[in-house]
Design brief:
388 residues; alpha+beta; Cathepsin B, Chain A; 11-stranded mixed beta sheet; two-stranded antiparallel sheet; 12 helices; 13 strands; 35% helix
């Protein structure tokens, strides 16, 4: 995704993120929102993408880890940076082939983690952390700039043709910033290659999964190329009516599956520090200052979302592909309304919910770019209509 986490964290530092974690099933005492976790699907712990635009890899890797657990496999801590490196290699090739008319940057989508596993394997985070510059967490600003400058220089060179070594030189930059990929590594007393680890331990295939979304400019129950900048590998998404989105999400969670979630988080209704994502009934522009202040404190009715509202927000850029996250559970507020527990990648001390937050059904319907989900987790009627 076009990740906003760095900006959000800087803002949080200025406004003061709560540093003390508390019980994840209730809000802070001064908030009127009180949640009870109804269904939490097994998943791994919250990680921190820190100062990197790699939310898509953290969400996709977390999703893969949960899928392995669902299939009876071990609880893994996989390498987010292995998929990041794979994406940067592929994007460089496409950028050069397309003479620079291509989205080159750190963003991406969760499905690209699964594609990397299928094509190149996977490693544990211990085997490939990507931390080579003395930092304890990812810091990618310099690397991102250097890589972009390099591929620009390749296509702008005045030699009249490309040299046969440009990609080798590019790969050496990745070696410097992320580390060379080991040919083999040890896990649980056994030696693996990235390929054998994926085949024998992870044991997942992209064919088992689908990207699901809902827009009105393309036919329903058909695959289409979703026009978002970070779908740079031109993956097909499946379009469903808006009325199918919540049943898909509910059915997956109730069946023991998690869902990788691509969404807009630039909306004023998203507040990770307060642990909430919601859509108030009134437009923000129509609220008084007092009403805006009370939105995240006093529970109130939320807006009814229509397909037309979703489409308009997508068309006018008020819904963009900002961030990827991982939906891991169902919750209820004190009034019995359903919310969704979301694992973020902004550190476990980034809010008072241990790095999780709660998204309302209205927010899911309004600001979802797409779900990435196991096809087996879909309701049978939807799966049949999609041809699965």
């Amino acid at each position: 995704m076009k990740d906003l986490s760095i900006a959000m964290l800087l803002i949080a530092m200025l406004t003061g993120y709560g540093a003390m974690a508390q019980e994840a099933d209730t809000t802070k005492p001064e908030s009127g929102y009180h949640f009870t976790d109804v269904k939490i699907v097994p998943h791994t712990s919250v990680k921190d993408q820190n100062r990197s635009g790699t939310c898509w890899s953290f969400a996709g890797t977390s999703f893969v880890e949960a899928e392995v657990m669902h299939n009876g496999g071990p609880e893994l801590d996989l390498s987010e940076m292995f998929s990041v490196r794979d994406a940067y290699e592929k994007r460089a090739i496409s950028y050069v082939r397309l003479h620079g008319a291509f989205n080159f940057g750190p963003g991406g989508e969760a499905h690209q983690v699964m594609e990397a596993i299928a094509e190149k394997g996977m490693l544990t985070d211990t085997a490939y952390s990507g931390l080579t510059i003395g930092e304890k967490l990812p810091v990618h600003g310099e690397m991102d700039n250097v890589l972009k400058s390099f591929v620009k220089a390749v296509i702008q060179n005045k030699n009249g043709k490309l040299t046969p070594v440009w990609f080798d030189a590019y790969d050496k930059i990745l070696d410097s910033y992320l580390g060379a990929i080991p040919q083999s590594f040890d896990y649980d007393g056994k030696s693996y290659t990235p390929e054998s680890f994926a085949e024998e331990v992870v044991k997942l295939s992209p064919d088992e999964y689908a990207e699901i979304t809902s827009f009105t400019h393309v036919p329903y129950y058909q695959p289409f190329l979703l026009e978002i900048p970070d779908n740079w590998d031109y993956e097909d998404y499946y379009n469903v009516p808006l009325e199918d989105l919540i049943p898909i999400l509910d059915h997956a969670l109730e069946s023991g599956y998690t869902v990788a979630w691509a969404a807009d988080v630039s909306d004023k209704g998203f507040n990770h520090r307060k642990g909430l994502a919601l859509v108030p009934e009134k437009e923000w522009s129509e609220m008084t200052d007092g009403e805006r202040d009370s939105v995240f404190i006093v529970p109130a009715e939320q807006r009814t979302i229509t397909p037309e509202m979703r489409q308009k927000a997508y068309e006018n850029y008020s819904t963009t592909d900002d961030h990827s996250m991982h939906i891991v559970g169902l919750a209820q507020d004190q009034d019995g309304n359903t919310w969704y527990k979301v694992k973020n990648s902004w550190a476990s001390d980034s809010n008072d919910f241990g790095g999780y937050f709660y998204a309302s059904q209205s927010y899911i319907l309004y600001k979802t770019i797409a779900f990435y989900v196991n096809k087996k987790a879909l309701p049978k009627k939807v799966a049949k209509k999609l041809g699965f």
